[in-house]
TrEMBL record:
Pfam family, one: Aminotran_3
Protein name: Aminotransferase class III-fold pyridoxal phosphate-dependent enzyme
Family note: Belongs to the class-III pyridoxal-phosphate-dependent aminotransferase family.
Tree of life domain: Bacteria
Keyword Kinase part of the UniProt annotation: no
Record keywords: Aminotransferase, Pyridoxal phosphate, Transferase
Cofactor: pyridoxal 5'-phosphate
A GO term for molecular function: transaminase activity
InterPro entries: Aminotrans_3, Aminotrans_3_PPA_site, Class-III_PLP-dep_AT, PyrdxlP-dep_Trfase, PyrdxlP-dep_Trfase_major, PyrdxlP-dep_Trfase_small
Length: 379
């Protein structure tokens, strides 16, 4: 059998990782400013993570959601504490798309409505409603195009208010820092105005924190920079450092009903052990603070580089979620960074380099990246 060929690949076979470094099968070392697409939060192969996950595997990998799972309960308490959302309720699943799917479903169960407002350039996943809320017609199959979603310009509060005032909107879903959409940031004015309008019109506000959350922005959640409290928060990616996991954080206003949501694998013992190990390391190593400080430093260095006129037209982002807009296509630059400089970066659209390194990224690594990037941009 062959693989279903949907991914354009770099010609590199990564076989090993440690911290912010990965190695290929020929022994070449790479600096990882991509974090396997924002997934590696605490660094590759952290010893505490390995220890916790392997000892859990020695005890019990999986049992169903029909019995008490003490690890889920512990995770709810610890995640509530570290995120400042102690009063929310936790529902665990296996991926980001599934988190958004359940969030939208819960919103609709609650207010009985079916319309969703989503932002232009938004990305919310590739399943049913999550893909419908994703503003990219190329990945919405005809079977997913069910007319539930209106896409509106990010930060255009009047446009969102006008739709909300019709009184039929089930949910608004936003990324406070758009990832796939190109590191576009929600303004405080938009966030607070939207939260108020959602309250006024009985609409559920969902913050998709799958990429921008879990410490990446330098606060636990990106919406916490904007002074809002969403009704529902969705997370995945960094939550378990690569073990497939997603979560929905649900405000106390929602009353659960038996059978309303459910999953076979979600919140299994192994996933919870991985997520608890992530929280341990984030706390012990102050990784949210590191993301804020190292991210600020890296942005400053990038702005200096921009002054020297090397194809950089804009630098934006927060913490360790940074976009470098170029006046040339990113593709050859990323290829040269991988093959000449042995550095992985992400991208968005045709001209944006997207940096999403593990949250343990250091200033020295930032300096190294600046040197190598400036070499490649001079070509
Ligand atoms: C903001 C956002 N939402 C949802 C998703 C979908 O997550 P998953 O690929 O785990 O389904 C992604 C993935 O890139 C994302 O960046």
């Amino acid at each position: 059998m062959k693989l279903f060929d949907v991914y354009p690949l770099f010609d590199v076979n990564i076989v090993k990782g440690k911290g912010c470094k990965v190695w290929d099968d020929k022994g070449n070392e790479y600096l990882d400013l991509y974090g396997g697409h924002a997934v590696i939060s605490i660094g590759h192969c952290h010893p505490h993570y390995i220890d916790k996950v392997s000892s859990q595997l020695n005890n019990l990998g999986f049992y169903s959601n029909s019995v008490i799972n003490g690890l889920q309960q512990e995770l709810a308490v610890r995640l509530g504490r570290i995120s400042g959302c102690d009063d929310y309720q936790l529902f665990l699943i296996n991926s980001g798309a599934e988190a958004n799917e359940n969030a939208l479903k819960l919103a609709s169960f609650t207010n009985g409505r079916t319309r969703v407002l989503s932002a232009e350039k938004a990305f919310h996943g590739r399943t049913s409603l999550a893909v419908e809320a994703t503003a990219n017609p190329n990945i919405i199959a005809p079977i997913n195009a069910n007319g539930h979603v209106t896409y509106l310009p990010l930060n255009d509060l009047e446009a969102w208010r006008k739709e909300l005032a019709k009184g039929d909107v089930c949910a608004c879903i936003i990324e406070c820092i758009q990832g796939v959409g190109g590191i576009r940031m929600v303004t405080e004015e938009f966030a607070t105005g939207l939260a108020q309008a959602c309250k006024d019109y009985g609409t559920v506000l969902i913050c998709d924190e799958i990429q921008c959350g879990y410490g990446r922005s330098g606060k636990f959640f990106a919406h916490q920079w904007l002074g809002i409290r969403p009704d529902i928060i969705t997370v995945a990616k960094g939550i378990a450092n690569g073990f497939p996991m997603g979560a929905v954080l649900i405000s106390p206003d929602f009353a659960p009903k038996y059978g309303q949501l459910g999953t076979t694998f979600g919140g299994n013992h192994l996933a919870c052990a991985a997520a608890l190990a992530v929280i341990d390391v984030m706390e012990n190593e102050n990784l949210v603070e590191n993301a804020r400080q190292t991210g600020t430093y890296l942005m400053e260095r990038l702005k200096e580089l921009q002054q020297t006129g090397h194809h950089i037209t804009d630098i934006r982002g927060r913490g360790l979620m940074i976009g470098i807009e170029l006046d040339i296509p990113h593709k050859p630059i990323r290829e040269r960074l991988v093959y000449n400089q042995r550095m992985f970066t992400g991208c968005s659209g045709t001209n944006l380099l997207r940096l999403l390194p593990p949250l343990c990224f250091t200033r020295e690594m930032a300096d190294e990246f600046i040197v190598k990037l400036s070499q490649e941009l001079k070509h």
